[in-house]
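Handoff note, outgoing to incoming analyst
You'll be picking up this chain. Sequence as last confirmed:
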Amino acid sequence: MKKALSLAAMLFAAPSLIAHDSFEITLEIQQKRKTIEVRMEMACSTATAATDPEPSNGVLFEPAEFSEWEEKFLAAAPELIHLVDNNGALPLKSTSSKLSREDDVLILYSYESAEDLPLEIQAPMLNRFPDMGFGVLVTFRDKAGKWYPPFVLFLDSQQAPLPAI
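Most recent structure output, in case you need it:
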């Protein structure tokens, strides 16, 4: 029992350790003082499907071919997810992309956020996938460093409010 509780505490405290399969996208949102940093991780085939405006199953590629895909990932990035407050979509400061240690695709976002307004995450990227199986696992950390329980977005529920600040 003690081991199970320790493992659960470790997974809750470190959401980036949560594993995913090829049908799952993980999204880690960390609110900073004046910015919000978002880390999206997905399998290579999921990432290539996300760059296709028509629903598809994506294409596998070797890590050595990442540079051939990176421009497509960055071009699609602003349309994959949105952070919204009462004033509309938050301004996107920057995006970058790289491979993770497990050779999954990471897309890193940095948004401007000067006000403490309620936030909502939207994942229109889910429209780019076949009807069944894909989801976005979202974790959120507020300015004080508190992690909130993860939740999942699906095709029929592509948006959700983030915990109140």
